[in-house]
Structures
1.
Amino acid sequence: MSTLTTSELEERLNDLCAAIAADEEVSNARAQAEAFLADESAVSLYRRMAQTQQELHHKQHGGEKITDAEINAFTLLRDQAEANPLVKQFNDAQETLQGIANMVNGFVTKTLEKGRVPTQEEVFGASSGSCGTGCGCH
């Protein structure tokens, strides 16, 4: 087994990062996220929905009763967010980028555990092979 020096490993990591940054799927996801972030009304809607969801979650886990009015207000915000194309694109972009990050992390972690390059099955399980769309693993 060959041993890499720290500078060789850093060079290969830079190559991996360059490949990820140059990937069309990554570029498209980043563009979708940036378009969302540039639209103040979409960001504000998303934040209000997320904040309301968090407040209801804390209230529920604190044993407090959530009123019908609170549920209806959240449902309205969620429906508005789901109907907003920029919010949908942002959610899709997050899913894509997180899938790629999970794939990279999974392979690196399993490589450190095994001391060799792992197979897809070792990283994602025997039944997965491909984890579906949006993850970048296929």
Note: The helical segments are 6-22, 24-37, 40-61, 68-83, 85-114, 120-124.
2.
Amino acid sequence: MKTDTCNLAIQNKSTGCLKTGTCDINGCHKLTVFDWLADIPLPPGEKPFPFVEVRFKNSRKDFYATNGLELYTGDTVAVEAKSGHDIGVVSATGEIVRLQMKKKQVDYEKDLIYKVYRKATQRDIDKWQQLRLREEEVKHKARKYVIIHGLQMKISDVEYQGDGTKVTFYYTADGRVDFRSLIKDLAREFSTRIEMRQIGFRQEAARLGGIGSCGRELCCASWMSDFRSVSTSAAKYQQLSLNPQKLAGQCGKLKCCLNFELDTYVEALSDFPAHNLQLETEKGNAKWIKSDIFKGHLWYAYIDKEENGNTWHKLTLEQVNEIIEYNNQGQKPASLEEYAAELSLMESQPIENFENVVGQDNINRFDEVKRKRRKKKRRKSSKNKQKNVQNQSLQNNQQNNNKRFKNKRRKSRNGNHNKNGN
């Protein structure tokens, strides 16, 4: 029994969404298309665009001719394949499909485009769902055959064609793999046509999914549909440490998110001087050490370390550009210390009339409370120690006085006794 929610009820038990990548109601798939032309009516006399976009498993999409059928987004259809037919879900219709075909350079007048046979019947859908439930078992058996043949490859996913006449195995490998004997065993085991399709490690991570180091779902598995090349220069522009363990994602390649803010960093760095440009002063030439893009600060140090030491001088971007302008005019400022002292004086000035209008608190506010409590405890402990020392000294003095008094009494008694004896 099929329901209108994301839960699939089988024998009165909710098993969750079992349609990975083929949601009928466009509720939870990253390839869902937003048709912003849906509410715009066609001009009088114009016919609807006779092509639709159909979505399959594993981020696979293709364009099909409607063959005179009236189709809507979310319809399950049986489409033409190289051999037999396949089952998919209509993801876009109308003029948005025309724009997508133009963007992907698909010429519907010259290129061979398959057609939609019919809307899928309940029998087609039942068979399709049964095949989808078998895919996990088929994948495990195929992996056992790979181990038996000793092939350096990994089967990551399996996809059945809608009519069950073909099985596509998606695998990853570092190089070319001779799997002719493997295909024979798989065809004998499953009695279907076998197709092996190699994919990249990024595509494998997108299909398997997972949680990234940021704590969120992988971008490639949640919303990204295309993969752009990522180079180490993206990390250099953002001044990140070139640590492969931190820069690599779960696919083993550089993280795609390194490209997200790259344009902003490149635009910000366009105002900064070149790193190999030296600042000329009367005290000596200085070279660039590092930069803070967000605050607009740069650190320079004199080249002659023996005389001037290995001291870094922090300057603002405006100060550096001013020194460069002086150098271009043939002039040299006295030293970098003057500019660094000016900057430190500006930073040391208190901000007047500051009001916390946003209501944000300092993140270290609890540390101050802890410090105060520690100081109070130390004061109490020191006072208690002083009191104990004073009490102890008083007790010692009293004991000494008692001893002296007793000794005096003894001496006086002994003296009186001697007198009486004589």
Note: The first strand starts at residue 9 and ends at 10.
